[in-house]
Amino acid sequence: MAFIKEESEDVKIEETLKHEETEEQTKMAFIKEESEDVKIEETLKHEETEEQTKMAFIKEESEDVKIEETLKHEETEEQTKMVFIKEESEDVKVEETLTLKHEETEEQTDLMALKVESQELNEMEEKDPDGQQKITQKPGKKANHKKHTSIDTGEKPHTCQQCGKSFTKNGSFEQHMRIHTGEKPYTCQQCGKSFTQTGSLTVHMRVHTGEKPFTCQQCGKSFAQNKNLTAHTRVHTGEKPYTCQQCGNSFTRKRQLKAHMTVHTGEKPYTCQQCGKSFTQTGSLTVHMRVHTGEKPFTCQQCGKSFAQNKNLTAHTRVHTGEKPYTCQQCGNSFTQKRQLKVHMTIHTGEKPYTCQQCGNSFTQKRQLKVHMTIHTGEKPYTFPQCGKSFIQRGTLTAHMTIHTGEKPYPCQQCGKSYNSKGHLKDHMRIHTGEKPYTCQQCGKSFTQNIQLKAHMIIHTGEKPFTCQQCGKSFTRKERLEGHIRVHTGEKPYTCQECGKSFTNKGHLKRHMRIHTGEKPYTCPQCGKSFNQKENLKVHMRVHTGEKL
């Protein structure tokens, strides 16, 4: 029994050991399974992490692609913008070029329109909050294309209902309308003068600022306007692109041709509202108005003398500088003004383009014809208020005034003698130079003064056009008739300031004055003896020639 009990206990122990071993194995199997589960879980987690990494990488790649596409899209948009701007710019350039060719008369208007279009183009380039440029497309491109097309076709859709003139641009049309309405919306803040165009105001402001931004590359002369520089360059090139179809005369400027055409048409569209006088050019009317207003806006900086016209100031400054830029190619004489050279050239050519329609007399200068016409009309518009005497010419009145004032502002630099007019000084200077520019075409005799030549010509013609109405006596010169009339009236207007003696003509007073001054201007070239009268010299010369009276 004890054996069986021990054996039973051994069996129990063995079973217990087996059970424990089984439990141990079960535990090990569980631990193994748990370990495998952990491994699987770690593997899954690792795979999940890898999947997430892959997804993140794919996401990043996708974003990079999107960014690249965005950049490409923005670049494409930028290129589109640049192309659009380029097209707009080219449209403007083409429009400007063609406008200048087809609408030269609307030059300033076109420039203003182009400036407006340029401003619109600038307004189309705006910036967004991020600082990037964006294009706000306006309907201007279609309008530009329409304008461009109208230039090609020659179409002028904007027509003035008042005068019938047509324009390609609405801006040009609107500016034209101000001619009819009189509207001048652009006013100078300094002098109050108003203008129809802002461009005209800009140019006007240079009068106040003295700015002359356009300079000639050949001579350095500067101008306030580019068109004046363009016209000036033709002085160097000799180009005269504007030709009159009727007479063939050519001009450097279009406005000169336009003014010239009135010679053929006789048109004088600009009329003074105060006196009714008419002019061919608006500039001439503007200058004429200063006769009524007394305005002399151009002042010499050296002596303070003022002038109604800028060209007169320019000519005057040459008195100070001594400049004489206009030279005769035939005889070498130089002049301060172009018109003086032009008048001088008629001495060589003998041309007398200005003819009196009533008597047929011809003249070298227009003003000479104008003065001559007063013989027919009897008009003497220039009156001296002190003595009431009237004159045909302003210069004659000015010279007459010196009789009352005794002023002789023109002195001879060689002998010191003074004269009351520049013309008299000029005539006097020929005594020193020996110049005799006026030559008789029939006998070849020359004279220092044109009036002497005219008087001489009567020897050949026998003409005595000036007749006394009281006694019928005729004279070759008007001055001699005037002196003769004083025989009838007893008038002696020329009085010696030293002794009080009076004379009927100025020449007698002049001769008398030599008694007081002792002057003897007439000298014998052979023996050097001098005389106070030309007649006395002539008598003396017979001593040398042996000529008998």
What's the shape? elongated
Query: Ranges with pLDDT <50 over ≥5 residues?
Result: 69-143
State the helix count: 17
Estimated share of beta-strand residues: 5-15%
Question: Total number of β-strand segments?
Answer: 30
Spatial order of strands in the largest sheet: 1-2
CA-CA gap between termini: 217 Å
Structural write-up:
This protein is mainly alpha-helical. Helices cover 55% and strands 11% of the residues. It has 17 helices and 30 strands. Strands 1-2 form a two-stranded antiparallel ribbon. A two-stranded antiparallel sheet has the order 3-4. The chain has a two-stranded antiparallel sheet with strand order 5-6. Helix 1 (2-102) runs antiparallel to helix 2 and helix 1 runs parallel beside helix 3. It is elongated and about 200 Å long. It starts with a helix and ends with a helix.
Topology summary:
Elements: H1 2-102, H2 107-123, E1 125-127, E2 133-135, H3 140-153, E3 158-159, E4 166-167, H4 170-181, E5 186-187, E6 194-195, H5 198-209, E7 214-215, E8 222-223, H6 226-237, E9 242-243, E10 250-251, H7 254-265, E11 270-271, E12 278-279, H8 282-293, E13 298-299, E14 306-307, H9 310-321, E15 326-327, E16 334-335, H10 338-349, E17 354-355, E18 362-363, H11 366-377, E19 382-383, E20 390-391, H12 394-405, E21 410-411, E22 418-419, H13 422-433, E23 438-439, E24 446-447, H14 450-461, E25 466-467, E26 474-475, H15 478-489, E27 494-495, E28 502-503, H16 506-517, E29 522-523, E30 530-531, H17 534-545
Antiparallel strand pairs: 1-2, 3-4, 5-6, 7-8, 9-10, 11-12, 13-14, 15-16, 17-18, 19-20, 21-22, 23-24, 25-26, 27-28, 29-30
